[in-house]
Amino acid sequence: MHPELAADLGRLPEILEETRQHALAFLAGLDERPVVERAGPPAVAPLTEEGGGTRAALAEFAERWEPRLSASAGPRYFGFVTGGATPAALAGDWLTSAVDQNSNSSLDPAGQQLERETVGWLGELFGLSAAHRGTFVSGATMSNTVGLAIAREWLGERLGVDVAEDGVGALGPVRVLSGSAHSSVAKALSVLGLGRTALRTVPVMPGREAVDVAALERALAEAPGPCVVVANAGTVNTVDFDDLRAIAALRERYGFWLHVDAAFGAFAALSPEHAELVAGLDLADSVCVDLHKWLNVPYDSAVQFTRRPDLQARVFQNAAAYLGPLSEHPDLVHLTPENSHRLRALAAWFTLRAYGRAGHREIVERCVAGARALGAEVARIDGLELLAPVRLNVVCFSLTADPTPERLAALAAELADEAFLTPTRYAGRPALRAAFSNWRTTGADVRRTAEALDRAVRKLTA
Ligand SMILES: *Cc1c(COP(=O)(O)O)cnc(C)c1O
Description:
Helix 5 runs parallel beside helix 12 and helix 6 packs across helix 8. Strand 4, helix 10 and strand 5 form a beta-alpha-beta unit. By secondary structure, the protein is of the alpha/beta class. The chain is 41% helix and 12% strand. It contains 14 helices and 11 strands. The protein is globular. Bound molecules: pyridoxal-5'-phosphate. The site of pyridoxal-5'-phosphate (PLP) has 14 residues, from helix 6. Pyridoxal-5'-phosphate (PLP) binds next to helix 6. Keywords: Aminotransferase, Decarboxylase, Lyase, Pyridoxal phosphate, Transferase. Its cofactor is pyridoxal 5'-phosphate.
């Protein structure tokens, strides 16, 4: 054994203890460090022939890289849709690395059994029936990709061709209809060989991001063959929701595959006041839910649900004599793009066990309350205007006068020590959005952000 490896093995308890202390110091400083550090990268360090052991690596990380990291785990990182990590999720994630399982086969079954238990709880949390089976993937992009891969196989079934065997060329042109599809849907269509132009945007309702169901019906009626519909449950700009029940009802007349991108919107199901927004989610043929957003588990984690695990196995089966069998409950190796994967479910398992449905409901409801409070502040601040009502956990707003991307970027930069917001364009207008999905965010953070916004707008318009 290399002497540094042998030495590290000998002092493993001390190394882990120092790492733990380092992690605690980072977390304790979350509130104080700039939310986003915009320093450039450090000078590139060469690969060395000899290393210095874990302690030296930790010291170098602490000096060169850690100061540059954002407080994305903290309470005022409102960019994109970003969750933190609950204490239990963090504990579960640490253990995931410690136990280092490859949880994909019944030949070594505990990992995938734990994953199935966790997926079962998640399905219940989101109101899905037992007809939905789920698998863990690395994020909502991958969840959308897997859902659309199953949809592609379903189209083949409808047209009497086998896409998994004969390729996507056997299908002919495909139509994927959506009102306000997330950008990852186009990416998924590119990956799947269906092509980005397969995505046809269907008109939305006036002043909304939710699809106009009558327009969707017309698009279905005009389509030359079976389609895929991507319904949106929580759009990133204004958290709008398609009417899932009305869309699902169209399936009787126009057979189509219904994929629902509920990356973070699915969490509305946890709050009785908002559960109606995702009513009908169970009717979907496939569902995407992100976990590293509103469940607050560390990156990277999402789940993909489907009513057709048989088609999923047709797409993803990995036939090899030394892997597990393709049975009624196929091993996970046969269900996702990865073959090997970490015991990704453990962080979710921990947080659901530690806080239960009520604990996670409280996170969701506190985030919604925070977004509403910030929305009210934005409406009050001179020089800012809300572009949409705060439906759930995102505040979408712009400058009243001269809302150019440059001025909005300047506003965001002015705020960056206190809060991180990301740019967007809504209804043709450059805008900023603040998304609430971190378990640490409190009313004090909303006040701090509103005060910083107020100061930044005054400075910009002075
Ligand atoms: C975040 C998001 C995605 C993509 O998620 P990743 O985890 O970044 O892959 C897809 N759809 C919606 C609605 C999202 O909010």
